Amino acid sequence: MAQEKKLVEAITPMNEDFAQWYTDVIKKADLVEYSSVKGCMIIRPYGYAIWENIQKNLDERFKETGHENVYMPMFIPESLLQKEKDHVEGFAPEVAWVTHGGQEKLTERLCVRPTSETLFCEHFANIVHSYRDLPKLYNQWCSVVRWEKTTRPFLRTAEFLWQEGHTVHATAEEAQEETIRMLNVYADFCEQVLAIPVIKGKKTDKEKFAGAKETYTIESMMHDGKALQSGTSHNFGDGFARAFGIQYTDKNNELQYVHETSWGMSTRIIGAIIMVHGDDSGLVLPPRIAPVQLVIIPIAQHKEGVLEKAEELRDRLSKVVRVKMDDSDKNPGWKFSEYEMRGVPIRLEVGPKDIEKNQVVLVRRDNREKIFVPMDELEDRVLRLLDEVHEGMLEKARNMRDSKTYTAVTPEEFEKIAAEKSGFIKAMWCGDRACEDMIKEKTGVTSRCMPFEQEKISDSCVCCGKPADKMVIWGKAY
Amino acid sequence: MAQEKKLVEAITPMNEDFAQWYTDVIKKADLVEYSSVKGCMIIRPYGYAIWENIQKNLDERFKETGHENVYMPMFIPESLLQKEKDHVEGFAPEVAWVTHGGQEKLTERLCVRPTSETLFCEHFANIVHSYRDLPKLYNQWCSVVRWEKTTRPFLRTAEFLWQEGHTVHATAEEAQEETIRMLNVYADFCEQVLAIPVIKGKKTDKEKFAGAKETYTIESMMHDGKALQSGTSHNFGDGFARAFGIQYTDKNNELQYVHETSWGMSTRIIGAIIMVHGDDSGLVLPPRIAPVQLVIIPIAQHKEGVLEKAEELRDRLSKVVRVKMDDSDKNPGWKFSEYEMRGVPIRLEVGPKDIEKNQVVLVRRDNREKIFVPMDELEDRVLRLLDEVHEGMLEKARNMRDSKTYTAVTPEEFEKIAAEKSGFIKAMWCGDRACEDMIKEKTGVTSRCMPFEQEKISDSCVCCGKPADKMVIWGKAY
Questions:
Q1: In this prediction, what percent of chain B has a pLDDT beyond 70?
Q2: Under a CB-based contact definition with an 8 Å cutoff, are residues A35 and B72 in contact?
């Protein structure tokens, strides 16, 4: 128990220093390691296994909705990046430039892709000619680079992994449908797979993606009350199509511009998993993406029959869940702490007394509930329990978010909440950029989104007092 | 049939111009598209689906042999690249250099990884301390960049996709075992999944990887008689460990250097699939990685009951194979050509007469054999047929290779074969680098490997005539 205590003490408590707690968890749970490459992280096996499970689930959802994977070059010639004015203004300040290939200076600089709209546009212009070629529903899994000054593993790194969907459609309506469809895929994925409740909404013009007509977002709340933009879906209208000349001949033999979308989710979402579900003992992983869903810890494993039984259970359970047995010579207390730190959803303990009673003990990571289960009901009970853990985590996260969500009608109320609390603020907005800017300047809080589910908090803008019919969710963001 | 003919004629016959045939196939089968990024290719959905199937199968094999996936930064600081002398000499001339991040000039140049030994070494030095930390068996899926002057899709591009395994071990024996184990994984994968026969062997010092103690390779033969290095596995000994200071404390509490390996396979292997199996009608895909294993073409689909039957068959077959039905309004002849071009292993034809007889027609892509199958035996027959196609393709490729493999005892014989034939030449070598250089200079042929399966062609070196006990496979290489 001394060892166990030491391990737990090694994490800074959340309430003491949330940022340090985060850093402690990602290191102690072996998710990442730092490297000598400034601003870049090494994703270690346990962290990467989480990403693989995320990829697998998302990729299936993309394919079910008719998307195909492709791979574009990682470099973008400077002239290509410059073709869409808003887009280059948004990204040029934060890209890495390749100037030399081998011993030679390049005639044109190449940037390492910060996102691939320009490459996809060029490709679409080459392959789309007729209405018969539409829609094209593409996705790409890759890494992208954005030169960030201050970085934090998963949340903001110079290089990160993501997927970027890029689609072209014959009509504006189809593009809008696609934009919302993929936002819904992200929202459903977050709630049903990651147990993270999200708010779906539209970004204000100030916060939208460089070059987009409209940006939609899912916003989640971290344990410290800050918001994390967890996935975005953009409708480009025909802006990029006009800049890149992506046209098709319609059924009446007339030339039309295509309508385009893009949407992305990144390794950032692993930061959300950590900060939504984690606690002072470490990670708490949602069962549907946990690399290990259940860990078996034999108790008094030197006693006759214990290891054999543990192995038998592992073999049985490995047919239905991702299971690991730890029969190393560390003491059980140390192992308990270790797998709590790693956020394994269920711990199974089996010792001589359990074997005598033909039962095992299951312990939930999320709420530490202990459950005694007859051995012959094990598979069924474990499968059900994983679902219960998922539901429990989702509800807990929703309650946490709701308890940190406030409403403000007057500027004074807004400023007081922004100064004293950390969380979401619901307040009305007139739609004027000046008000948005002023709120940010005065309180440090930004508009997260205009939620699809609107509420009427009042009739007037929380900033200028003019008539307002948009409710905005405001918050400090990662 | 006119359309069909046109489509087929659009490919240059192999015997007329093999390079042009290759280019025609990859374009007509929609595998790749060119982009404005010099030397880089766009991998289109059909090409990427092949890569996904390769990845899935290889990844399972890596995990079964105990390996874990990780992700390293894509950049390598210049000073880190320079730590191992041979390695930097081999790679520095062909890397892309990032010199600016955003608006600022970097204090140290970063190269875009051409391979990640140096990053893994730095990481291993950080995380390996005791014999308890060993072995570390890591793999990474990523893209790498090598600045090539002349490029060809899949075979040689500035950027390509690959996996790179990197492992560290306590002893030289374990590292050697790992090196050979992974070579065998590659060889088995090529033969059992891609139907490509390979020759396993060791590279000469001249041809080994920059920084390796020993490089092992699998070599396959393309339809034009040229060799393609299809996968390599390197034993680094403790060379990198000494350069990067990767040490561990052994059981006797003494400091030891680790022993390291790396091994890689890339999208290049798709080039091998095309050039080993393809024919003048286009691609011939090995069934185990074909994105579509069977395509259903309804005949006289406007007639009553045909489409319904085709749909019923699709639904049945989709439970056991990757199936597609094409009920577009193109004529069957056009569809036949289209799916031949795309290399779909089996075509299923079903029309009114077949329905009457309660049968379907299966047509093999590899040898065009037609098989009539009773509808109620369909699933079994298709599954068996896919295996038969695989075996047939493997045997055909082996026969092709053997028919283009020659032996030479004297320099004159060697030169004559090299001048008149295209294929592998088996000949003895004394082990002297000078002879290897001279053979290359005189004939343009290089040593592919010293095969594990040695044969005694003669007693003396084919170049200098001195005693020789090594048989080398020589050939022109991609």
A1: 98
A2: yes
